[in-house]
Specification:
single chain; alpha+beta; ten-stranded mixed sheet; about 20% helix
């Protein structure tokens, strides 16, 4: 059976610069089945789901549903819901945990402040294992179910405590896709042994660049530029690099990446088209997805 992930892998489509953009993630536990638009097609009250979508719009906050790996029978709603909020910008990255009696309580949050990196005392600092969020929503794309669910189950069975399934991370054709928190880096085409290395890196404060799509803190040109600098100077420290300026517009940008030690680089990034045509999602028409190509990396005074 041909899938969008099979085609993308076979054509060696680059991963860098393809992560979803979100300065802050708000993750709500919602067991049971998910529809394609999970916030309004799950056991979550659709009125609450729509209200969360409106509250997060244009704030830099991305709301997603999560659930523990395993079978998801159409059962009664959970009495309480685990919630995580995570800000991914270097220098102010945090991950906080809370449990709510009803998801409607989340509508009391200041979404503008969350997007700007101010948690406002929400919950408590997360002190457990780093979170490994695997996209498994087969109603959005069958690759997420065929490839994501087995990965999430294998990781959970191996003893990884921070594994959750998540509704949507974008880039179905890169399945299985993964987001790790608190650092906010996304990965594609991941296998269980690679995820274990990635999570050990998170525990050590390192970023594994193999299979990395980019940091959700940055727009797509910045994601590609930051990864290019990491690879060029062999920088692994999670909070060492920041995208401090992006000049230009599609199809070409000049991105300035800064190190905490004062060094800076100018990275030329060009928008290209992935050829030959392929489906960006299973069942979709053939297209030429945009790609971020790093043209040059130059250190500046």
């Amino acid at each position: 059976m041909s899938t969008c992930a099979t085609a993308s892998r076979g054509l060696n489509e680059p991963l860098a610069g393809t992560a979803a953009t979100a300065r802050t993630w708000l993750l709500l536990e919602q067991p049971g089945p998910w529809g394609a638009k999970a916030l309004t097609s799950s056991h979550l009250d659709p009125d609450v789901g729509r209200a969360l979508e409106r509250a997060a719009d244009s704030t830099g906050v991305r709301v997603a549903l999560i659930r523990r790996p395993g079978r998801h029978a159409d059962c009664a709603a959970a009495p309480r819901h685990q919630v995580y909020a995570a800000h991914t910008a270097p220098g102010n990255a945090w991950l906080r945990s809370h449990v709510v009696d009803t998801p409607r309580q989340l509508l009391d949050l200041d979404f503008e402040a969350l997007g700007a990196g101010d948690h406002g005392g929400f919950g408590a600092p997360h002190t457990g294992a780093p979170l490994a969020l695997v996209c498994t929503n087969g109603k959005r794309d069958r690759c997420c179910a065929l490839l994501g669910r087995p990965l999430a189950s294998e990781l959970a069975a191996s003893g990884e405590e921070g594994v959750w399934e998540i509704t949507h991370l974008g880039g179905h054709r890169f399945s299985p896709t993964l987001l790790v928190l608190p650092h906010g880096y996304a990965y594609g085409r991941t296998a269980a042994h690679a995820v274990k290395d990635i999570l050990q890196g998170v525990r050590d404060g390192r970023v594994v660049t193999e299979g990395c799509r980019g940091s959700s803190a940055w727009e797509r040109p910045g994601q590609a530029a930051e990864l290019a600098v990491r690879r060029a100077v062999r920088e692994e420290a999670a909070g060492a690099l920041s995208v401090v300026h992006t000049a230009g517009d599609a199809p070409r940008w000049e991105v300035t990446v800064a190190h905490t030690d004062g060094r800076r680089w100018r990275v030329a990034v060009a928008q290209g088209s992935s050829l030959p045509p392929r489906a960006e999602s299973c069942g979709a028409a053939l297209g030429t997805p945009t790609r971020m190509d790093v043209v040059a990396v130059r250190e500046v005074a």
